[in-house]
Target: FUSC family protein
Amino acid sequence: MWDRLAASDPGLLRLTAGLRTVTAIALTLAVLAALHVPVPQLVAGAIAAMVATFAIREKQRGQQAVTLAFGLPVALASVSLGALLSQRVVAGDLFFVVLIFCAVYGRRFGDRGTALGLIGFQVYFLSLFVGATASVLPELYGVICVAFVCSAAARFALLPQTPAGTLDRLRRAFRARLAQLLATQAELLDAGPDEAEKVLADLRTGTARLHETALLIQGRLEDGTSDPAVARLLQRRIADAEIAAERLGLLLLTARSAQRTDTLTLHLPGAPLPSGGELPVRDEATAALRRDLQALRLLTLRPAGEASGTALAQVRNRLLGYREEENLPPASPAVQDVFRGLGETARAALGLRLALDGPQDESDDTPATARSREELDAEDAAIEVSEESEAEEARPAGLERPTTRAAVQVAVGSALAIVGGELLSAQRWYWAVLTCWIVFLNTASTGEILVKGYRRLLGTVLGVVAGIGLAALVGHHTWTAFALVLLFIFAMFYTAPLSYTLMSFFVTAMLGLLYTLLNTYSLSVLVLRIEETALGAACGVIAAAVVLPVHTDRRTNELLVAVLDRLADVTRGAVDQLSGGAGGDLVEQARELDQALADLRAATQPLTHPITPLRSRRNTVRYVVALLETCAYHGRSLAATAELLPTHPSIAADPRLRGAGRRIVHNIEAIAAHVADPRSATQIETGPSIASMLEPGTLRTPRYGRVTDRVLRHLQRLDEAVSGLARPLGLAGGPARPRK
Model:
């Protein structure tokens, strides 16, 4: 059960965020209740504690403490201005718009600027929500100070979270998700025609979840480790395990089909399972394959302290032995490839265990296992941390800067929301402003804002329905209502990364309870909440569409060019290194490619959302993103293979690979130029396959000739995928140029 929890919530980040926020609020309520403060101030303390806890996002505890210390005077100043300007409608509205602009503009100063802006805005909203006046300011000062102290106690004493601890939990999540993926791959062996499509969908999901965890780990390596060499080693081992597991899934799909499976099958949602054959259920090789997949899964999950004993050593040795040609069981070539993939995945799992848990008992090693250890040791010794300073990229200035543009858009949208909200309700107009503010958070295009506004409105409507029932049940039972408020706050934070609609549902249901506590609950209030939410979302969309608009097409094109640029860098570096040159830090380049692709995937959500009316365009976008994921997989694999040089005894460089890869890089750059400027005259090159461009017998290796085939296969698949990208993006092809 713990492994399932670790896999569903990598690093326990959602669980920790929810528990810490709830703990801070509960502690604040306990202290304030002991002081016998009235219910409105209890509500104010709960909101202040929530804001002081979730606003701070820095990873280092020292930075968190500094931001929290700066946040307190910001909160006190904000609540003071909110109370003093409550009776001055025009001045208060103008100040609120200025505050919103400054809060959003502060995002350009990093996590601290974002946190302080969020605290300033939310505490001003708090003053409006509880109806703060100048006469109650001293009491509110005390309440807010108590809330910040309780938030600090929850963060630093009761539920401390260190970067090293978070990284350790993320590594456990990676192991758990890797084991889940292996279990799904085992299911693929026995899946019949009626079950195969569902198992394939689970395989895609498991592969994507493993990749997501790998990205989370890579994003926290710098803060979670004290030694850059250790961070680089972990990054390398995580990447190896991810690539090996993904390749094993492809080999299993190929073994089930009459011909080699296209990598796109694993990345395109809805793509059918390759037809043409099934693995024989009673075949001895298949039975051994099924057994060894389960064994590899158990070895992956087993902690270092329990992964000892003769039986486990024999299982590990058998799996690693499949890397030797003479140890493969008699079977078809496709099934033998799966056994080779098992051996490579077992080697990656061994490298991951050595990197995470340190040296292991080697007394029961076979020669095959000893060779795997020697290869891993040689790779570890070759890892050096690059000290080269990165060139600073040119950044947009003025209104072209994203934070400036967003600040202007939010300010305009909020001004519209204030005017419209005042017409709907002179007391609760601020709900429209809050919605307008929220739909702009973590969005960068008009389409993203539209989808986020739709989800918030849907969650609000469902939350109002729930709030009506809860308010009737709770009545005037104050502490029962506060207990439900804590439960909903935890659910809000736990579901926020998963579903914005669910989060909005829990927020609105919680607000219904808070209105009950403040004795301001009525059906008309909750209906007004829906109206203000719809108004705020509409104002946000209008501001985004009219004021300095960033259309979804422009945003996705910019990110697509960034992905293609990163893909060209990885391909060029990997091919150069495989050709005998110096390719640079390929693991870091592959990570940048993955991050750029993740940004593109998020930005295309408005185009692939179920409510979009352009069905053909949605299918095209999904196809292009899937092709890019296929390209990224082959690029990562080439980079991982290239980094084995010169330490791996079975891989040798060949200068002719540089010529074979030149066409791929040219085509990637041509597509990027066409996306950036459709009037560009660039064309992609077509010609013979990559494998035919090299003479037979290239890259002969002393032990594993299959490594050579793998390099050529990745180049060939990458070439095909890049050529496939040109068609939906409207780029014509031309003949290949003569090569020197």
The beta strands are 684-686, 733-735. Residues 385-394, 696-706 have pLDDT under 50 and may be disordered. Residues 196-224 form the longest helix (29 residues).
